[in-house]
Amino acid sequence: MTLPEPVADGVQALYEDDDLLVLCKPPGMLCVPGRGPDKQDCLSARSQQRWPGALIVHRLDQATSGLVLMARHIDMQRRLSHAFAERQVHKRYQAVVQGLLGPVEQTWQEIDLPIAADWERRPLRVIDQTLGKPSQTRWRLLAQDGVAHTSRVELEPITGRTHQLRVHLAALGHPILGDTLYADEAAQQKAPRLLLHACVLEFAHPRHGAPCRFESAPDF
């Protein structure tokens, strides 16, 4: 086990070994290069400068901050990709949403709404009971602010659809603050960025099976 330097090219590195990396992506950074010369700066490019051969395993939206797991070589990328596909990697997020969700309770609740691509407004997604793919998100209320009329929630995606957490919360009538895709103008104006952060990654290390858990507190 190697504890890396706290910051690498603006990306916080929480952990590294010969097989994998756990990084904390800042908001506004792409995970992989986009189209055009102005979209080449990204998490994978910066990581490869310090860890040659580093490979993306999963992604966060550009606007989302938080924990990203990367592989150091192709065999580990295959193993980790399989773990994600088999839902053996457990992720949790925190978000601040518009509106009050009721009394603070520790019990988890589930959103079960199918998500489909909105082909006329790509890259947007929509709830579609006919064409949508099964999509489930567990959530619980952590706190609420009666003055600001907002709630802080913890989220656990069961499936991994594009924009799943953003679409599901908006469908409940509680969009994430700062969400320029799914929130109304009032919710967008309440935050300078999307208030969504990947705060927990938990999995068994593919090399030796030891349990791994990493946490990153949101800065909002």
What is the topological layout?
Layout: E1 7-8, E2 11-16, E3 20-25, H1 43-50, E4 55-56, E5 65-71, H2 74-85, E6 90-98, E7 109-112, E8 115-117, E9 125-127, E10 136-145, E11 150-157, H3 164-171, H4 185-189, E12 196-204, E13 211-215
Parallel strand pairs: 5-12
Antiparallel strand pairs: 1-2, 2-3, 3-5, 4-5, 6-11, 6-12, 7-10, 8-9, 10-11, 12-13
How would you describe this structure to a colleague?
The protein is of the alpha+beta class and 220 residues long. The chain has 4 helices and 13 strands. The strands form 2 sheets. Strands 1, 2, 3, 4, 5, 6, 7, 10, 11, 12 and 13 form an 11-stranded mixed β-sheet that branches. Strand 4 and strand 5 form a beta hairpin. The protein starts with 6 loop residues before the first strand and ends in a 5-residue tail after the last strand. The model has no long low-confidence stretch (mean pLDDT 93).
Net shape: globular
- What is the radius of gyration? 18 Å
> What is the terminal separation in angstroms?
30 Å
Helix-strand string: EEEHEEHEEEEEEHHEE
Low-pLDDT regions: none
Query: How many structural domains?
Result: 2
Overall average pLDDT: 93
CATH topology category name of the largest domain? Pseudouridine synthase
Classify the secondary structure makeup into a structural class. alpha+beta
Percent range for β-strand residues:
25-35%
Per DSSP E runs of 2 or more residues, the count of β-strands stands at 13
The top level CATH class name of the largest domain = Alpha Beta
